C-alpha cells in the first residue's frame, strides 16, 4: 500500500467505473433541473439524493464476496419469479396492469430486478454445469425455460420492453457461455419467422406503437406525437444545443415525458450533439469496464456474470436512445441513471455492485494486476 | 469447427469466451456508432427542418384583422364605417371538451339552437389554433359576464373587434352592399389565413364587394410563445395592421338618403347625375335590406321575408331592373327627327290616334294640330307615330345609343343589365323576322322591344341636359371633361323647350313644378305598360298591383343652365306624372333647399308610418309573429295598423311578380326572350 493523501480504501475504489457513473448521474441532475424550469424541485434534488443512497449501496455490494453471489443466484431468481407471479395476480385483482409492489420508500418492480436476476441465474447455471456438457441438450433447454418463464410473466403484465430485455440478457449469457454458434443463427431465423405470430399476439397499443415507430408522422397528434416531438427536440438541438435552460420543446411541454423516458431528448435540445456524444461515451466506458472485468475473471461465473451485466447495461441505454431518436418503437424503457426514477437507478447500481465485487475477486487472485 | 472439440474443456471455453466477448463488444461499438450517426443526421443534416418545426411549436402567430377602409360620400361623410364591438371566440386546441364549455356560454350569451349548431360545425372544421367565432356585437354586460367566468371556460377568448356600420342603413344598401365572413370557396381559392380569422369580413355585394381589395388593408400579426397546452408564456413581436384605404364616392350622402326615404312605400329607384361631369350623386333602389343586419349574418326568417317580398328588396333596381321606358324616350325621337331634316315647326294633326294599314294606334287625347315642342309637352303619340314612321326606327335607334341606351358602362358593381335598343338588324338576328312598321311605332314611344334600366334613363337625361357625352362614375377621382355630343345646340334647344313646357307650361307634369323661386326643372313623363291590355282598358287603380303600369320620369334642372339630371322609376306606379314626377320634384328640391324638401318628406312619412327603419322593424316583427303562428307557437298576432298612403300601391299584395325581368347575377345586354312588357299599344299620361 502506497502512502498518500487519499485514504487507501477510497484510492482502491474502481474509479474507472465510478467516474463515468458520477458524470452521468450529475449530468442527469443538471438536465432534470432544467426540465423543471430551473428548479431543483421536483426532480433534480430527489434524484441526486437517491443517487448517493444507491451509490452507497453499490459500494457496499461491491465488498460482498463473489462466491456469495453464486449462493444467492438461484434463490434470488426464484424469489423474483414468485414476486412476478404475485404482481400478476394483483394486477388481475385490481383490473389492470400492475408492475410494482409498494415498499413505502420505493415502488419495487420485480421485472426490473429480473433483468439482473436472469443474468445471475444463467451465469450460475453454466458455472455449475461441467464443461463437457456444453454440447448436451440440457445446456440449451434448461436456460431457455429459465428465461422463458419470467419473460412470459413480464409479457403478461404487459411490458414488452422489459420482457425483451430479460430475453436479450439471458440469451447473451448463453451465447457467451459457448453454445454452438449455429444455434443462435438458427434461433435468429426462427425468431424472424415468428414475428407474425408475435404481431398477432400483441395488444392494440403495442401494435400501434410499432406502426407509429415505422411512420411517426402518420399520427402526429396521437401516439406518434411522442416520437415526432422528440425528434424535433433532438433535430433542433444541433451540434451545440440551444443552451442550458433554453430548450423550448421541454420547457413549453411539447416534449412528453421529458424528465423520464424522453430525458435524452431534453438533454439533446440544450446540449446538442456534443452533450449526447459525451453521454454515450460515458455509458460505453461503463460497459467497457464490465467487459474488462469479465475478461480478467479467473472463473466462469465471474466471466459470464460481468459480461452479461455489461450487456444488460448496454441494452438498457441503447434501446432508450434508439427509441427517443425514432430507431426503435416506444417501449417505455428509461435512460438508466439519467431519467428521473429509482427503479432503473437501483438496477444499475446492483449491477455495479456485482461488477465491483468480481473486480475485487480478480485483484485478490493477483493475476493481471 | 476446429474449436468444437476444445469447446468441451474449461480452457477451450475460456478461449471461446474471449472471442465471443470481442464479437459482442464490436457489435456494441457498431450500434453505438449508429446512435451517434443517427443523432448527427437529425441534429446536423436535418437541423434546419427541425429548428423550423420547433419554432412553429414555440411561436404561435395570431392574425389581427385589418381595419376596413371607410366608404365616404363626396363630402367625406361616412356611408360605411367601423364600430368597435365585443366578441367571443373559441380556440379549438385549448378546449378540452366542447360539451363542457357550451352550456355556460349558452346561458351567458343567450345563444340560440341555430348558433350552437353553427359553432359545432365550425368547431369540427377548424384546425388547431384557428379561432371559432361564438358571438359578436355583444353588450358590455354580456362581455363582462364572460370575462368573469373565464376560469371555468378553457379555450374561450373574449376580444374587442370591429364591425361594419352603415349609418344610413337600408338607404345605401344597394349602393354600398354589405360585408360578411368569407365563403369556404374563397378560402379554398387563396388559402389566405386572414379569410378565416374571426372578425374578418369581405365585401359581399355592391361596392363593398367590387372594391374589396381597396378597402381591405393588410393584416397585422401577433407572435407569442405558447406552451403545448396553449398557455401564453409571453408575447413576442407585434406587427400592427395597416388599415384599408378610404373609398370616396361621387355620391351625395344626404341626397341618397333623402331619395331612398322619399320612395316611401313604393318599389322603385332614383338615379341623380351631375350632368356636367357624369358624377353619380344618388343611386337609390327601394325597398332594400338593412346592410347592418346582413353584415352580422342574417337569420333564416329575415332572409325568407326579404326573398318572398314582391317589391324585391334584394335587387338593385337602378342597375338590374329593365323597363320599357315609355314616353321618356320621346326627346330622343325628337332629336333623331331633327337630324333627319324634319322641321320642328311642322305640325301633325292628332285626332286621337294614327292609322297604319288596318290598325289604329291610339293616342291618349285629341291634341289637334301639334308641332314638336307641343308634342313633347303633351306627350302626343300621334305626332311621334307619324314622324317616326316617316324616318324609320333604325335612325332613331342610332340616337338612342348615342345617349347611352343599350350601352355598357364600366361601373364598380357586381351586376348590371344593359337593356335593348332594337332595330331591324337586331330583330332579324334575334327572332329571324323582318322589322315591321308597327315595331317602329311602338319603339318610337318607348314600348315594344325597347328596354332600359333607371340608371340608363338618368344618363340619357344627363346627356340631353348637357349635350355632353358624359361617362358615369361613382368613385371620386380627378375630373374628366366630357366631349360634346354630335348634336347641334339648336336641336337640343327644341327638346329643352319641349321638356320645359312639360313641367312649367301646363304639360303632363305641371303639378310637379319645383317649389323654388329661381330654379325650374324640365322633364318628361312616361308610363310603361306591364302587359297587353285589351281594348281601352288601362293598367290603373282597378288592376291588381302587379299588372299596373310603371311610372317613369326623367328630368334636369335648372332649365337654362342644366346642372343636375335625374330619372325616377316607380314600379306599377300607374303613371309618370302621378307617381314618378312628384318624387323627382322633391329630390331636386332637396339639392337647392334641403329644409323645404325635408318638410314635405316628413309630412309624407307620417302617413307611411315612420322612417324606413321604423317601417322595416315593424314589418319584420309582423313577419316573425306570423311565422311563429304558422309553426303553432303563439296565437295569431294582432295586425299592426299601418296608415295607408294616399297614392301608393298597397305594399302587402299577396301575389308576387317582378317589376321587370328578374335580377340575374350576370350582366346581360339583352332581355330574356319573353320580354316582360309586350304591348303593341302605347299609353300616354
What is the strand content of chain A? under 5%
Principal-axes shape call of chain A: globular
Order of helices and strands of chain A: HHHHEEHHHHHHHHHH
Global Rg of chain A: 21 Å
Q: Indicate the low-confidence ranges of chain A by residue numbers.
A: none
Mean pLDDT of chain A: 87
Structure in words:
The complex is a heterodimer of chains A (369) and B (685). With 369 residues, chain A is an all-alpha fold. Chain A has one domain. In chain A, 71% of the residues lie in helices and 1% in strands. Chain A has 14 helices and 2 strands; from the N terminus they run ααααββαααααααααα. In chain A, β1 (101-102) and β2 form a beta hairpin. Chain A is globular. With 685 residues, chain B is an alpha+beta fold. Among the domains of chain B are: 62-244, Penicillin-binding protein 2a (Domain 2) (Alpha-Beta Complex), CATH 3.90.1310; 321-468 and 481-591, Beta-lactamase. Chain B is 40% helix and 16% strand. Chain B contains 25 helices and 19 strands. In chain B, strands 2, 3, 4, 5 and 10 form a 5-stranded mixed β-sheet that branches. In chain B, α15 crosses α18 (393-402) and α15 runs antiparallel to α22. The N and C termini of chain B lie far apart (125 Å). At the A-B interface, α7, α10, α12 and α13 of A face α2 and α3 of B.
Topology:
The complex is a heterodimer of chains A (369) and B (685).
Chain A: H1 8-11, H2 15-35, H3 44-62, H4 66-94, E1 101-102, E2 107-108, H5 110-128, H6 138-156, H7 160-177, H8 181-201, H9 204-214, H10 224-237, H11 248-251, H12 263-296, H13 300-324, H14 342-364
Antiparallel strand pairs in A: 1-2
Helix pairs in contact in A: 2-3, 2-12, 3-14, 4-5, 4-6, 5-6, 5-7, 5-13, 5-14, 6-7, 7-13, 10-12, 12-13, 12-14, 13-14
Chain B: H1 3-6, H2 10-45, H3 47-58, E1 59-64, E2 71-72, E3 78-90, H4 98-109, H5 113-125, E4 132-138, H6 140-149, E5 156-165, H7 173-176, E6 179-180, H8 184-190, E7 202-203, H9 206-210, H10 212-216, E8 220-226, E9 232-239, E10 247-248, H11 253-262, E11 268-274, E12 280-286, H12 291-296, H13 300-308, H14 317-320, H15 330-339, E13 348-350, E14 353-356, E15 359-362, E16 368-370, H16 372-378, H17 381-391, H18 393-402, H19 424-431, H20 437-444, H21 454-466, H22 489-504, E17 522-528, E18 550-557, E19 564-570, H23 576-592, H24 594-608, H25 612-630
Parallel strand pairs in B: 2-10
Antiparallel strand pairs in B: 1-8, 2-3, 3-4, 3-5, 6-7, 8-9, 11-12, 11-19, 13-16, 14-15, 17-18, 18-19
